[in-house]
Write a structure and sequence with these properties.
Strand content: under 5%
Radius of gyration: 19 Å
Number of helices: 10
Structural class: mainly alpha
Order of helices and strands: HHHHHHHHHH
Length: 227
């Protein structure tokens, strides 16, 4: 996928808050959440920490703004994968392809931007709000909508629908963390691609309680590999 690096914008009078967020996002990109501090962001922008504290009460408030920015970039990566999809006529195939694309975008962002990915999920995560309060642009909402599409298509049985999105999320997130901070960190690109492909295949079969027919297996394999 293309680089999702935050673009540095020069500081303009009256826009210091956004300049600090952009600078802090670059710090997170390079060094993860622990690198985000008021002093470091102020230094990068070329202002004093005192000036920065007029916009952020402290380190935690700045970090929350960067977490929001990281989530926006994660969502953009998922949208990029979704935009590449061919629109299948079969609703089940369409829903499964969306699920695979979401997983692809999530996983590739994690590996391409580990600092921002870790920052997005750093400590102090707020409890999950009711789904009615989750914005359409939220990456979790995209996953829920894809699972709902599978239920509406009759692929996902009603008894398997509750909490199904969390099973899918946990599988892809766990795979990403195994590659970032676990025993899969030194695997080859081909091994990473195969691991994601197999994870998506198993999620798809688990949701439907079926063995995927060959044409769906091939479709998901292609989407999981970014095709």
């Amino acid at each position: 996928m293309s680089s999702s690096a935050p673009v540095r914008t020069g500081y303009h009078h009256g826009d210091l808050r956004n300049a600090l967020i952009h600078a802090a996002a670059e710090l997170a990109q390079a060094g993860g959440p622990s690198s985000v501090t008021i002093r470091a962001a102020a230094r990068a922008v070329g202002v004093t920490p005192t000036a920065a504290y007029r916009h952020f009460a402290g380190h935690e408030e700045l970090l929350e703004a960067v977490k929001t920015r990281a989530m926006e970039l994660l969502t953009a990566a998922m949208n990029e994968a979704l935009d590449r999809l061919d629109q299948a006529d079969d609703p089940a195939e369409r829903g499964l392809s969306r699920l695979a694309a979401i997983g692809r975008g999530y996983f590739t962002f994690a590996l391409a931007e580990p600092g921002l990915f870790r920052t997005a999920f750093t400590g102090g995560i707020s409890p999950m709000p009711p789904l009615s309060d989750v914005e359409e642009s939220n990456p979790f909402r995209k996953l829920v909508d894809a699972v709902d599409d599978l239920a509406a298509a009759g692929y996902l049985p009603p008894q398997r629908r509750p909490m199904a999105e969390f099973a899918a999320w946990a599988s892809v997130h766990g795979l990403a963390m195994l590659h970032l901070d676990g025993p899969l960190s030194a695997t080859s690109r081909e091994a990473r691609e195969l691991a994601l492909e197999r994870t998506i295949e198993i999620i798809a079969e688990g949701l439907g309680g079926v063995t995927l027919p060959d044409h769906l297996r091939k479709t998901l394999s292609r989407v999981a590999r970014g095709g």
